[in-house]
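Quick question, first post here. What does this chain look like in 3D?
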Amino acid sequence: MTQLTSSPSRKQHKRHSLAYRRVRGVIVAGIVVVGGYGSLGVIGALGSPGSASFSVKFVEWVRGNGGASIVQTAEDTWYSVNQPPVGGTPPKGSLRPTASVRESQPVKASSGILPAPKAIPPIASPPLAHEGQWTPEGPLVDGSPALYVTLMRPDKIHTSIVAGVAWLDPRLVSFLQYAGAQEPPGGGPWPYMAPIQGTQASNLVAAFNSGFRMSDAKGGYYAYGRMAVPLKNGAASFVVNQNGVATVERWTDGQHVPRSVAVVRQNLVPIVESGKVNPQVYSSNYQTWGATVGNQVLVWRSGVGVTANGAIVYASGPGLSVASLAKLLARAGAVNAMELDINSAWTNFFYFNHTLGTPASPANGYRLVYNMERPPQRYFEGTARDFVAATARTHPLNVAQ
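> Answer (accepted):
Ran it through. Tokens below.
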């Protein structure tokens, strides 16, 4: 086996991000020339809060104001000539999570929590050191790890790219749906809105991106007693109950939301259901999985699923098709799973190695995958999109709850 110990190249990450930003800049410049650039709407969009770059904000504004086909054509063209290389080896250190501050601390054997996840069998061959091996991260909750992360190559062909998988115990963390400035539509106030602060920051374990913009999600949005967008039967749904326990399921209750449910965030249709990968992930009909990039194009993608024993698993990485994302989540144990957002500007999972009671912050936050574009500060400032936060429970939740 090849031992990977040093940190991945920051220069490589910067080159990747810079190249993508330059391409987006070219898209912006072209649209500006064609369509003009003086409206109050676009000025407001560019001045909106958040760490997204000028070009990302502008492209989002164009996409939502009649220019979706222009953006789609430009992005499809870019992705078609910028696919991940075949073969190769990941950068040194990229298969090791951030050096955990928890590895040397005593772990309490709490009763009633889920057992630690089993290693994920590597997909690419030959397997490399640490691939698919879980590492506890984040603050200990009641003396036990609530979060495990692992890194691995997501297919047998593009063997230089790395995807990340995170596993969260819902008996130790509570899931909160945060609203962004633009998603869901209709404006606030909502019980939880960016930025993360106060008690939530002090108890934060992890935060990750939600689904598409609601205009593209082909589903609805319900949170904390308010229906922002009507729910759709058959849609893949990230559902959180009143106790903060999350699951992933195909929605069948129409506009009736049971009193036990606090959040229903829908996005497309399931990619894994009842333990089986949805055959639609192999379809050439790209619009099933988002009109921005075709289904067969390999891009940054993210997804979330639930295991048979109730753990929440999240996966993300570059160079993923919908099929490889679905298979990765199923391999991690998901019996139901859904795609979340796509493209490098919107796919991110951050975890925080801090002591509970002291605020989590960008200074103690880490990317799940070394080359995720956005920094951990994203959810500590205003952001356009909605997202999910996992916060530590005071005491482990009884399984019956």
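The first helix runs from residue 10 to 35.
Confidence is low (pLDDT under 50) at residues 1-7, 9-13, 291-296.
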